[in-house]
Amino acid sequence: MRRTSASLVAGALVAALAWASGPSSPAIALDPSTGVADLNQDINQILSDSRLTIARAGVVVKSAQTGEELYATDAGKLLTPASNTKLFTSAAAAETLGLDYRFPTTVLNTGRKVGSVLTGDLVLRGTGDPTMLAGDYDALAAKVAAAGIKVVTGRLVADDTWFDSQRLGNDWSWDDETAYYAAPISALTASPDRDYDAGSVIVAVAADGDKVKVSTTPETGYLKIVNRATVGAQTDVLIERQHGTRTVVITGTVAGPYQEWVAVDDPTAYVSSLFRTSLTRHGVKVLGPSDVGAAPSGAKELARHESMTLGELLVPFMKLSNNIHAEILTKAMGRKVANQGSWSAGLKVSTDFAKANGVQVINMRDGSGLSRRDGFSPGSIVQLLSAVRSKPWYDTWYQSLPIAGNPDRFVGGTLRSRMRNTPAANNVHAKTGSLTGVTSLSGYVTSADGEPLIFAIMLNQYLSGSPKDIEDKIAVRLAQFSRTAAAGDVSRLRAGSPEQAGDLECSWLKPVEC
């Protein structure tokens, strides 16, 4: 974890000591009559911003140490959380699946081996591993070849029955259908990179003489590429998969390299294509067609790959706000608790977990926050953040939250460019959330006195550009909070937030980085 100055190191040390002590840490001797009134006045001033005149704003701040509510406005109102939903999904997954949980992907056979010939079908069975790369499927194919198999007389069967067949969330917008952050959910999927953007392919273009060259990562013949782009003086290109098809149409002009992450239409069929190609590469010929179905109960395992642990997966999931990880974990929880890999079963697990931990106002429609029908109150978010501090998995989960102003992509995450050079830098651990007209920031911060605070900021229904700087000003003010000293003129608070492209999470705007 990098630090940019001695003051940041000192601040981070204070924060770490405060949070490591957990809810049982000794009380700090403070004068409660001083400082809180100034904090309330300053937050009210920040929220008086004209951009919020017609909007809805809910903010709650609580002392993690004493349980005292230091500030609240519209604490119980139901607001759209966007990716703050992932706080609930990730916490429920840590509790339900455990930090050591892994996703296995296996290859099975349904017949018997005679020499180098395998009679019957070859089955590829998945359980939702979002970290599977093309190279991992290739390694499984190599293991099949290493078992001495050269010919499979039957079919190549893709078994994705660990999850149900519903690929998209009920409330997801139709025009997000080809976007990688709304990729279809399947128990068999593949990622093109180590951000683990499951269910998508990177489509790249570059000028090659007077022609536009197109390539994909991974290399695949699954997509049908229609290249209508031309070489031009500047890059102004659109790479888009046509709705409900495998066809990617490329239009516009290309001057230099450019790439887009494109969701595939059917992750199971895509993975089946990757695996068949790998089998062929390793000298294994499958005579039958590719099919989809459940492996019979008597199928024997030939090869296995296991994912990283959930504790490790929390880092790319939460730091980069990966929607697909959230939905896969939701279905995985449903499968474990109710033997149903469905949204309805998984969301019940998350909701039951939240309610068991004192959360009252909650409406979960998906695991990621992409649905605009998701609803939480700021008070409910703070209640969850407070309750999980006593969990045995809390430290790992807490470290998976984005850290303000830290430039390391897998440390700062979606907060890596925000609140730099302020008391909040390397102090605030919080989850971002953004949709058009929605932004939220909820998490933890250590005050100037070393007091651990919990906060939730939810801004909805604004018509301006994204007011993330308002969130940052509040978070910085909390980092400056002292019960015995005023922080000074709120107008001089330095939020350190660059302009964001539109209203989506910066991690949703690949290839633009946070």
UniProtKB/TrEMBL annotation:
Residues 1-20 form the signal peptide. GO terms for molecular function: serine-type carboxypeptidase activity. It comes from Nonomuraea solani. Coiled coil: none annotated. This is D-alanyl-D-alanine carboxypeptidase / D-alanyl-D-alanine-endopeptidase (Penicillin-binding protein 4). Belongs to the peptidase S13 family. SUPFAM superfamilies: beta-lactamase/transpeptidase-like. One of its GO terms (biological process) is peptidoglycan metabolic process. Keywords: Carboxypeptidase, Hydrolase, Protease, Signal. It holds the Pfam family Peptidase_S13.
